[in-house]
Amino acid sequence: LLEHPLEGTTPISSNLSPVGKVFKAYCHLRHREQIAQAGGQLVPLREIGIPPYLGNHFPEEYVYGQSMQPQLTACLLKLLRASFDKRHPNLGIKKGLGWFGTSGEH
Fold first, then answer.
1. pLDDT tens, 48-104?
2. How far is CA 1 from the centre of its chain?
3. Taking a C-beta distance cutoff of 8 angstroms, is the pair 97, 89 a contact?
4. Whole-number Cα distances in Å, 34 to 40, 60, 86, 88
5. What is the C-alpha to C-alpha distance for residues 85 and 104, in angstroms, rounded to an integer?
6. Which of 4, 33, 55, 64 is most buried, judged by most C-beta within 10 A?
7. What are the b/e assignments for 35-71, b being 16+ CB within 10 Å?
8. Which helix (H) or strand (E) holds 29?
């Protein structure tokens, strides 16, 4: 990188992990009304004050359902995990099951 700097910019969200993509989709779906009021632009959630604030936690705790959540939230995350696996079935340890191992089924 020092000898050959990167050219151009990286598109927003193109370098997120599978967990990061699901967490971002969850936040934007869960808070779509507040985002619409902010002009509907793709903005960082911290800029418009939308929880969940991760604090001392990692997105994995939310995406894999390890943290306490309301039932609706858990249901939405389950659907998002399945949706990701359906779109990317060959990611993860077991090919064909997807990153989260759902096979695209919810």
1. 665 656 667 778 887 887 765 555 577 888 899 999 999 999 998 888 999 999 998
2. 28
3. yes
4. 9, 24, 28, 29
5. 5
6. 64
7. beeeeeeeeebeeeebebeeeeeebebbbeeeeeeee
8. helix 18-30
